[in-house]
C-alpha cells in the first residue's frame, strides 16, 4: 500500500515539473523580449523616475503623481514614440534601485538624473545625453565650506546617496573626507539639517531644487565634475534605443525640450540652465 502512494506521489511531482517547464518555455526570457514591440502593443512605456528629487522627479502627495523635468521629458518621448494616446507609466526608483529594476524588467527605461559613465555603460546602454549637470555642494548659509577642497580634511563628514556616482567622486576630489551614505535625497537633506555632515553633495540641478525648499541652505563650490544625463535602456534593445534617440531629437527640434527646460529651471535662482541644456 505504502509503495503505491509513493509511486503516485512521484508521478504527481513529475507532472507538476512538466507543467512548470512548459509554462517557462512559452514565455520568452526578458533579454529576448523586444521592449519596443511590447510597448507598442500595450501603448505604454514604463519609466523609472525619481520621486525624491525636486525639479527632476518628485512625488506630489496632493494628487499622487510624480512631477519634474525627467517626468515631462519621459512623457514627451512617449508621445513621439507611441502617438498622442501613448501612456507614460512611472515607477519610483532611487539612485540605488534604478539599475536592478531595469535589469529585472520592472521598467523599460531609466530617466532619473543618471549620469552616463563608462562603468554603467558596461551594464546598460544609454541614449544620447539630454542634460548637462555638474557635481556641487549644498551647505548651511554661513558655513566655512566654500569648495570641495575645504572638505579634504580628516574627520570632515559629507552626505551623499548610495548608488550615486557623487559618492565615488568625493573619494577622488576630497579623499580625506568621510562620506555618509543615505538611501535617498529626502533622507540626505534631513541628515544635513540635523548636522550629520557639513555638506550634501550631488549634482547642481538637484541641489538648487533642495535649496529652493530650504532657504537656510545654499549651493557652493561651482560644478567640479561633468555629469551628462542619459536615458538608460537594457542592452540588446537596439530598436527601442533608436526610437528614444529619434524622439529626443524631435523634441529638441520642435521646441518641446526648451519649453520643458524653462518650465522647471527658468526661475531657479542661481542655476544657469542654459549651460545644462542640450
Ligand atoms: N548624476 C549622479 C548619478 O547618476 C547623481 C544623481 C543621482 O543620484 O541620481 O549618480
Task: Reconstruct the topology from this structure.
Layout: H1 2-26, H2 35-42, E1 44-50, E2 52-53, E3 57-60, E4 65-67, H3 69-82, E5 87-93, H4 98-103, E6 109-110, H5 118-121, E7 125-126, E8 131-133, E9 135-140, E10 157-161, H6 165-173, E11 178-182, H7 185-193, E12 199-203, H8 204-213, E13 217-220, E14 227-229, E15 232-233, H9 238-253, H10 256-265, H11 273-276
Bound molecules: glutamic acid.
GO cellular component, one term: outer membrane-bounded periplasmic space
Domain Ionotropic glutamate receptor C-terminal: 53-267
InterPro entries: Bact_solute-bind_prot3, Iontro_rcpt_C, Solute-binding_3/MltF_N
Attribute tags:
278 residues; alpha/beta; D-Maltodextrin-Binding Protein, domain 2; 2 domains; 5-stranded mixed β-sheet; 15 strands; globular; binds glutamic acid; Solute-binding_3/MltF_N
* Straight-line N-to-C gap: 78 Å
| CATH architecture assignment of the largest domain | 3-Layer(aba) Sandwich
CATH C-level class of the largest domain is: Alpha Beta
**Average pLDDT for all residues:** 92
Q: Strand sequence of the main sheet, in spatial order?
A: 5-1-6-15-7
The overall number of domains is 2
Biggest sheet: strands, sense, closure?
Answer: 5 strands, mixed
CATH fold description of the largest domain: D-Maltodextrin-Binding Protein, domain 2
Low-pLDDT runs of 5+ residues are 16-25
What overall form do the CA principal axes indicate?
globular
Please, how many helices? 11
Helix proportion range: 40-55%
Strand composition percent:
15-25%
Number of strands: 15
**CATH homologous superfamily heading of the largest domain:** Periplasmic binding protein-like II
Helix- and strand-based class? Answer: alpha/beta
Q: Give the H and E element order.
A: HHEEEEHEHEHEEEEHEHEHEEEHHH
Protein name: Glutamine ABC transporter substrate-binding protein [Lactobacillus sp.]
Keywords: Signal, Transport
Family: Belongs to the bacterial solute-binding protein 3 family.
GO cellular component, one term: membrane
Amino acid at each position: 500500500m505504502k509503495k503505491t502512494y509513493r509511486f503516485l506521489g512521484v508521478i504527481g511531482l513529475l507532472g507538476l515539473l512538466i507543467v512548470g517547464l512548459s509554462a517557462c518555455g512559452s514565455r520568452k526570457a526578458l533579454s529576448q523580449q523586444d521592449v519596443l514591440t511590447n510597448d507598442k502593443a500595450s501603448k505604454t512605456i514604463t519609466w523609472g523616475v525619481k520621486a525624491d528629487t525636486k525639479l527632476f522627479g518628485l512625488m506630489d502627495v496632493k494628487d499622487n503623481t510624480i512631477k519634474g523635468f525627467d517626468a515631462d521629458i519621459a512623457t514627451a518621448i512617449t508621445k513621439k514614440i507611441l502617438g498622442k494616446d501613448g501612456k507614460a507609466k512611472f515607477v519610483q526608483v532611487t539612485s540605488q534601485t534604478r539599475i536592478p529594476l531595469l535589469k529585472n524588467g520592472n521598467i523599460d527605461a531609466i530617466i532619473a538624473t543618471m549620469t552616463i559613465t563608462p562603468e554603467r555603460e558596461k551594464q546598460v546602454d544609454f541614449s544620447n545625453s539630454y542634460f548637462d549637470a555638474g557635481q556641487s555642494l549644498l551647505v548651511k548659509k554661513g558655513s566655512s565650506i566654500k569648495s570641495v577642497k575645504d572638505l579634504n580634511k580628516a574627520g570632515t563628514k559629507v552626505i551623499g546617496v548610495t548608488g550615486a556616482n557623487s559618492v565615488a567622486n568625493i573619494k577622488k576630489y576630497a579623499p580625506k573626507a568621510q562620506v555618509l551614505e543615505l538611501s535617498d535625497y529626502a533622507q540626505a537633506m534631513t541628515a544635513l539639517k540635523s548636522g550629520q555632515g557639513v555638506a550634501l553633495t550631488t549634482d547642481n540641478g538637484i541641489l538648487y531644487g533642495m535649496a529652493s525648499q530650504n532657504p537656510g541652505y545654499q549651493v557652493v563650490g561651482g560644478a567640479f565634475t561633468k555629469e551628462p544625463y542619459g536615458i538608460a535602456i537594457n542592452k540588446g534593445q537596439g530598436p527601442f534605443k533608436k526610437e528614444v534617440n529619434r524622439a529626443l531629437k524631435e523634441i529638441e527640434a520642435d521646441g518641446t525640450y526648451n519649453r520643458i527646460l524653462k518650465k522647471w529651471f527658468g526661475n531657479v535662482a542661481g542655476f544657469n540652465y542654459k549651460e545644462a541644456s542640450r
